[in-house]
Amino acid sequence: MKKRAAWQVSWLPALVLCGALPVYAQEVQKPRLVLQITVDQLRGDLPHRYSSEFGDGGFRYLYERGVVYEAAFHRHANTETIVGHTTLATGADPSTHGMVANVWLDRETGKLAYNIQDPRYPLLTKGAGVDKASEVDPTQRAATTDGRSPASILVSTFGDELALSNAGKSKIFGISVKDRSAVSMAGHAGKAFWFSKANGEFVTSTYYYKDYPSWAKNWNAKRIAFTYAGKSWELLHDRSKYLFGDRDDMAYETSFPGYGRVFPHPFGKSDGKYFTTLLTVSPVGDEVTLSFAEALIDGEKLGQGRNTDYLAISFSSTDYVGHFFGPSSLESEDNLLRLDRTLAELFKFVEQRVGLANTVIVLSADHGAAEIPGYLKEFGVDAEYLDSKIIDPKTLEKLPAIEAVKKKFGIDKDLIQAYFQPYIYLNHDVLHERGLDEAEVARAIAVEVERLDGIWRAAPSSALAGGSVPTTPLDQSIQRNYNSKRSGDIYVVLKPRWFIGDFDGLSVASVHGSL
Ligand SMILES: [Zn+2]
Predict the structure, then answer these.
(1) How far is the CA of 314 from the centre of ligand 1 (A)?
(2) How far is the CA of 81 from the centre of ligand 1 (A)?
(3) Alpha carbon 326 to chain centroid, angstroms
(4) Quick one: angle between helices 179-186 and 81-90, nearest 10?
(5) Has residue 2 got a pLDDT over 50?
(6) CA of 508 to the centre of ligand 1 (A)
(7) How many angstroms separate the alpha carbon of residue 401 from the centre of ligand 1?
(8) Centroid of ligand 1 to alpha carbon of 317 (angstroms)
(9) Three-state DSSP class for 338?
């Protein structure tokens, strides 16, 4: 689920390392398994806020037994899912790994490209791709093909280096509800599976397999997602036990038809148009991911061989729940308590099959989330939703100030080709026709965009390319996001705490970003 973000600096993901410490004797003891967990949109303060409500064996195991990096931040400006995951997978900035946004304009085709789309590698399951009629994630809807591969990741991942280190002896996997979260973490050398909202199964593409391994076929045959038909997301505890127990029915939350904004949230019938989507906007998305992970660990005998295996699991529910209800909501609170139970079950399973003493666990987040403007306003903090039209290419094109810039350069055709967060893309063909300097025109447009209400910063990429960037943390983070082949001409930052929540007909309550 994508979002118009506001203050795109970086965010504080909790990062926890736990497990086998190397023993320096005759030989460094290798872990049998590296388990890299990413919790989508887990803001760093949230596990602390609920720490007294957590049970044993989940978050508490990591906090008590692990190394905790409290001040871990992403360094890049565009804190979105593919950007953050690929940074976690590679250790590189988006300027280097190339995943600068969930969607960017492909200058060769003139079309928006979804980050991991690749027509060469169709899904192994026909009809399991994005159903544009029911897909609520505008990022996913932007894909022009159902094919998927990691080809657009420009550098190696941890899994890649592991494979290179031992001639591919390690087993390397990435799984998630979201395709981009599985594919990025699996890297080029690993194998990825993700949840298809179209058929309720975990699927993959021909980049990875010619046919499903039997354990995956068996798991899919169980139709586990459909066992939730007719059920609801209910609170784990009595309402009085929750910090947000008396704040369930908040007007600013997303009230999705049939799902509502108060507990219980019904998933509806199994043939409901949004049935599988609603599972992902609840702890169930993480529960089915865990179930699939357990089947994978057993099916592939992870951690049983002589070489270190790698499993990346990205849990997506926290992100979807956050977008619908905000990070400070009863839903978010209950979701994290249930995620804590999901983690506890995962660690118990790994202990049985591999041994936690033989496993290195890493847990972090791809980005955080801003508070909902309605919540902020309750406490007197200035925040608001912006009309998506303010940055729409058609609106920009007709602005008197932009028209004046065009006139100055003698441009009489449409100049603003696209805006897709975070970049404005200018029509380079128009500029080339007139022999204009792209950088000069982009700078002039950026000056006018930055003057608009609700816009905090409009950074022309020409400055980034030339390295003449102010030394503010914001500008430095925009620079780290800049890749000459994929970034647009102007990076737009909205006013702090303000964002566009309505996009492509979908309204979300909260978005990514940092404050
Ligand atoms: Zn994300």
Answers:
(1) 9
(2) 3
(3) 16
(4) 20
(5) no
(6) 14
(7) 36
(8) 10
(9) helix
Please give the mean pLDDT across all residues of the chain: 91
**CA 151 to ligand 1 centroid distance, Å:** 20
- Distance, CA 140 to ligand 1 centroid (Å)? 13
Helix (H, G, I), strand (E, B) or coil at 366: coil
Q: Tell me how far the alpha carbon of residue 93 is from its chain's centroid.
A: 15
Distance 8 CA to ligand 1 centre (A): 14
User: Ligand 1: distance of its center to the CA of 180 in Å?
Assistant: 9
Distant-in-sequence, close-in-space partners of 210: CB < 8 Å, separation ≥ 6: none
Separation of alpha carbons 130 and 101, rounded Å:
19
Q: 């990691």: which residue's tokens?
A: 150
Q: At what angle do helices 330-353 and 317-325 cross, to 10 degrees?
A: 180
pTM for this predicted structure: 0.93
Sheet holding 309-315, edge to edge: 67-69, 15-19, 359-364, 33-39, 309-315, 172-176, 191-195, 202-203
The closest alpha carbon to 250, from 330, 321, 322, belongs to 330
* Nearest C-alpha neighbor of 40 from the set 285, 360, 345: 285
Question: How close is the Cα of 322 to the center of ligand 1, in Å?
Answer: 10
Contact call for residues 267 and 278 (beta carbons, < 8 A):
yes
Residues across the chain: 515
pLDDT in tens, 146-187: 999 999 999 999 999 999 999 999 999 999 999 999 999 999
Instruction: Compute how many other C-beta atoms are within 10 angstroms of the C-beta atom of residue 107.
Output: 15
Tell me, in angstroms, the distance from the centre of ligand 1 to residue 42's CA.
9
For residue 233, the CA-to-ligand 1 centroid distance in Å is 22
CA 133 to centroid of ligand 1, rounded, Å: 22
pLDDT at residue 326 above 50? Answer: yes
Instruction: Give the amino acid at 296.
Output: L
CB 92 within 8 A of CB 155: yes
- Spacing, Cα 512 to ligand 1 middle (Å): 8
Calculate how far, in angstroms, residue 40's C-alpha sits from the geometric centre of ligand 1.
5
Question: What is the SS3 assignment for 360?
Answer: strand
**Neighbouring residues of 75: CB distance < 8 A, sequence distance ≥ 6:** 10, 87, 93, 476, 477, 480
CB 295 within 8 A of CB 219: yes
Residues with Cβ within 8 Å of 410's Cβ and at least 6 positions away in sequence, in order, are 434
